Amino acid sequence: QVQLVESGGGLVQAGGSLRLSCAASGRTFSSYAMGWFRQAPGKEREFVAAISKSGGSTYYARSVTGRFTISRDNAKNTVYLQMNSLKPEDTAVYYCAADRDTAYGLSNRGPDYWGQGTQVTVSS
User: Would you say 4 and 96 are in contact if contact means Cβ atoms under 8 Å apart?
Assistant: First the structure.
Protein backbone atom coordinates (compact mmCIF):
# COMPACT_ATOMS: atom_id res chain seq x y z
CA GLN A 1 0.00 0.00 0.00
CA VAL A 2 1.14 3.57 -0.66
CA GLN A 3 0.15 6.80 1.05
CA LEU A 4 0.09 10.03 -0.93
CA VAL A 5 0.38 13.59 0.38
CA GLU A 6 -0.10 16.54 -1.94
CA SER A 7 1.24 20.06 -1.47
CA GLY A 8 1.69 23.26 -3.45
CA GLY A 9 -1.88 24.32 -4.03
CA GLY A 10 -3.04 27.89 -3.50
CA LEU A 11 -4.50 31.00 -5.06
CA VAL A 12 -3.04 32.36 -8.28
CA GLN A 13 -4.11 34.86 -10.90
CA ALA A 14 -5.04 33.77 -14.39
CA GLY A 15 -1.92 33.35 -16.51
CA GLY A 16 0.17 32.42 -13.49
CA SER A 17 1.89 29.19 -12.53
CA LEU A 18 1.88 26.68 -9.70
CA ARG A 19 3.77 23.47 -9.05
CA LEU A 20 2.05 20.69 -7.17
CA SER A 21 4.03 17.99 -5.41
CA CYS A 22 2.95 14.59 -4.19
CA ALA A 23 5.12 12.68 -1.74
CA ALA A 24 4.59 8.94 -1.55
CA SER A 25 5.38 6.68 1.35
CA GLY A 26 7.09 3.33 1.06
CA ARG A 27 10.09 1.92 -0.72
CA THR A 28 8.36 0.84 -3.92
CA PHE A 29 7.48 4.19 -5.47
CA SER A 30 9.01 3.21 -8.79
CA SER A 31 6.56 0.29 -8.95
CA TYR A 32 3.64 2.65 -9.39
CA ALA A 33 2.40 4.65 -12.30
CA MET A 34 1.44 8.07 -10.99
CA GLY A 35 -1.08 10.66 -11.99
CA TRP A 36 -3.14 13.71 -11.18
CA PHE A 37 -6.90 14.14 -11.27
CA ARG A 38 -9.04 17.14 -10.37
CA GLN A 39 -12.56 17.85 -9.24
CA ALA A 40 -14.24 21.22 -9.63
CA PRO A 41 -17.31 22.19 -7.57
CA GLY A 42 -20.39 20.44 -8.86
CA LYS A 43 -18.45 18.36 -11.36
CA GLU A 44 -17.13 14.83 -11.53
CA ARG A 45 -13.50 14.04 -10.86
CA GLU A 46 -11.52 14.08 -14.11
CA PHE A 47 -8.16 12.88 -15.33
CA VAL A 48 -5.42 15.50 -15.74
CA ALA A 49 -2.08 13.76 -16.33
CA ALA A 50 -0.26 10.47 -15.81
CA ILE A 51 3.32 9.27 -15.93
CA SER A 52 4.75 5.78 -16.29
CA LYS A 53 6.80 4.03 -13.61
CA SER A 54 10.10 5.00 -15.22
CA GLY A 55 8.93 8.45 -16.25
CA GLY A 56 9.43 7.65 -19.90
CA SER A 57 5.79 8.02 -20.94
CA THR A 58 3.28 10.72 -20.11
CA TYR A 59 -0.39 11.28 -20.86
CA TYR A 60 -2.45 14.45 -20.60
CA ALA A 61 -6.04 15.53 -20.79
CA ARG A 62 -6.71 17.60 -23.86
CA SER A 63 -7.66 20.59 -21.73
CA VAL A 64 -4.20 20.86 -20.16
CA THR A 65 -1.94 19.70 -22.99
CA GLY A 66 0.75 22.27 -23.64
CA ARG A 67 0.20 24.01 -20.30
CA PHE A 68 0.79 21.31 -17.67
CA THR A 69 3.79 19.01 -17.27
CA ILE A 70 3.93 15.91 -15.10
CA SER A 71 7.28 14.59 -13.87
CA ARG A 72 8.62 12.30 -11.18
CA ASP A 73 11.74 11.81 -9.11
CA ASN A 74 11.93 8.17 -8.05
CA ALA A 75 14.86 8.90 -5.73
CA LYS A 76 12.66 11.33 -3.78
CA ASN A 77 9.41 9.33 -4.03
CA THR A 78 7.75 12.41 -5.46
CA VAL A 79 5.63 13.27 -8.47
CA TYR A 80 5.10 16.84 -9.67
CA LEU A 81 2.60 18.74 -11.73
CA GLN A 82 3.89 21.99 -13.20
CA MET A 83 0.92 24.14 -14.19
CA ASN A 84 1.50 27.15 -16.43
CA SER A 85 -0.85 29.61 -18.11
CA LEU A 86 -3.51 28.82 -15.55
CA LYS A 87 -7.12 29.63 -16.31
CA PRO A 88 -10.10 30.14 -13.99
CA GLU A 89 -11.53 26.85 -15.28
CA ASP A 90 -8.49 25.07 -13.79
CA THR A 91 -9.89 25.84 -10.35
CA ALA A 92 -10.42 22.52 -8.57
CA VAL A 93 -9.19 20.20 -5.89
CA TYR A 94 -6.25 18.32 -7.36
CA TYR A 95 -5.68 14.72 -6.33
CA CYS A 96 -2.53 12.68 -6.62
CA ALA A 97 -3.04 9.07 -7.71
CA ALA A 98 -1.01 5.87 -7.83
CA ASP A 99 -1.60 2.65 -9.71
CA ARG A 100 0.21 -0.68 -9.83
CA ASP A 101 -0.64 -1.13 -13.50
CA THR A 102 0.24 1.29 -16.29
CA ALA A 103 -0.06 5.03 -16.70
CA TYR A 104 -2.41 4.45 -19.62
CA GLY A 105 -4.59 2.25 -17.43
CA LEU A 106 -4.56 4.85 -14.68
CA SER A 107 -5.71 7.52 -17.13
CA ASN A 108 -8.60 5.40 -18.38
CA ARG A 109 -10.05 3.53 -15.40
CA GLY A 110 -8.73 5.36 -12.36
CA PRO A 111 -6.03 4.50 -9.86
CA ASP A 112 -5.61 2.11 -6.96
CA TYR A 113 -4.76 4.86 -4.46
CA TRP A 114 -5.73 8.48 -3.93
CA GLY A 115 -4.25 11.36 -1.99
CA GLN A 116 -6.36 13.73 0.09
CA GLY A 117 -6.24 16.56 -2.43
CA THR A 118 -4.99 20.13 -2.57
CA GLN A 119 -7.03 23.17 -3.57
CA VAL A 120 -6.04 25.23 -6.59
CA THR A 121 -7.91 28.47 -7.17
CA VAL A 122 -7.31 30.62 -10.24
CA SER A 123 -8.76 34.12 -10.12
CA SER A 124 -9.72 36.05 -13.22
Answer: yes
